[in-house]
Write a structure and sequence with these properties.
The protein has 274 residues and is of the alpha/beta class. It has a single domain (25-270), classed as TIM Barrel. Helices cover 37% and strands 21% of the residues.
């Protein structure tokens, strides 16, 4: 082999090695308050969020011809983009590799499903699917829960009465602000979510008004006193918005900007903000 050929092979080998290094994701810091809104719209659903350390993702769910498909709109649903293929199977693989957690020694991961099709039929299909993944899912009863690697929560079209009547289930409900009442079990409704744009005037410009900050604090405190987490969608998805939500104690911070929120949260941790 002449020197030119050897040099060419060496360049090819180095290029291949560099390619492997480029696609290998480092072990990210788990970010328990980072929530990937409309996660399925990213280039690599779930995987992009995991690579950024997110511990909560949201997927829109449609029941189509007996299959649970992930898509924003019904006409965009594709048969290969099933709930199992995009989320449940990769999560199971991660849990098996990481000693029973999505992130090694990390917190419970939240899989929030925004049900778009009819509530009862979709939940019946989902319940059957979840039975195949019970070894990684949090189990809920009317009086307690057994926390596991992944907690499934249902938003959107929710079969509330069906879930409330079950003695054992592998999903719970994403509630709304009117559910902030002692009468609603935190084992049925462990998360409260609501539309920021309908509750607040602030859109991320200038300071948050004192009365709106106080209203937000009251809801956060109320949720925590009842053993629930709280989240808002349509909040300003900017550093100014993240700062207000973080400082006041909102548990899950919605974003479409995975890298931006990750970097902001890591910097906040370096500053000692919790």
């Amino acid at each position: 082999m002449n020197c030119l050929a050897a040099s060419h092979l060496l360049r090819l080998a180095w290029a291949g090695l560099a390619g492997c290094v480029a696609i290998a994701a480092p072990n990210p810091t788990p970010l328990s308050r980072a929530h990937s809104h409309n996660d399925y719209e990213h280039g690599r659903p779930l995987l992009d969020a995991l690579d950024h350390g997110f511990c909560s993702v949201e997927a829109d769910l449609w029941l189509v011809d007996g299959r649970l498909l992930v898509a924003h709109d019904r006409d965009a649903a594709k048969p290969e983009r099933t709930l199992e293929a995009l989320y449940l199977d990769p999560l199971r693989d991660r849990v098996q590799r990481n000693g029973g957690r999505v992130f090694p020694q990390g917190p419970t991961f939240t899989l929030l499903m925004d049900v778009k099709s009819e509530a009862r039929e979709t939940y019946a299909a989902l319940r059957a699917v979840l039975r195949g993944y019970t070894n990684l899912l949090t189990a809920f009863t009317p009086t307690h829960q057994v926390t596991n690697a992944v907690s499934v929560l249902l938003s959107g079209n929710r079969a509330v009465d069906v879930l409330a009547a079950e003695s054992l289930r592998y999903a719970a409900l994403d509630g709304r602000l009117p559910d902030l009442t002692p009468d609603a079990s935190p084992h049925l409704i462990p998360l409260i979510s609501d539309n920021w744009a309908l509750r607040f005037q602030w859109r991320g410009l200038g300071p948050l008004a004192d009365d709106e900050r106080q209203k937000l604090k009251q809801w956060v405190v109320q949720a925590h006193q009842q053993g629930r987490r709280i989240r808002f969608w349509a909040a300003p998805d900017t550093p100014a918005g993240w700062r207000e939500l973080h400082q006041i104690g909102v548990d899950l911070i919605n974003t479409d900007n995975l890298a931006g929120l990750r970097d902001w949260l890591l910097e906040a941790e370096r500053r000692g903000e919790r």
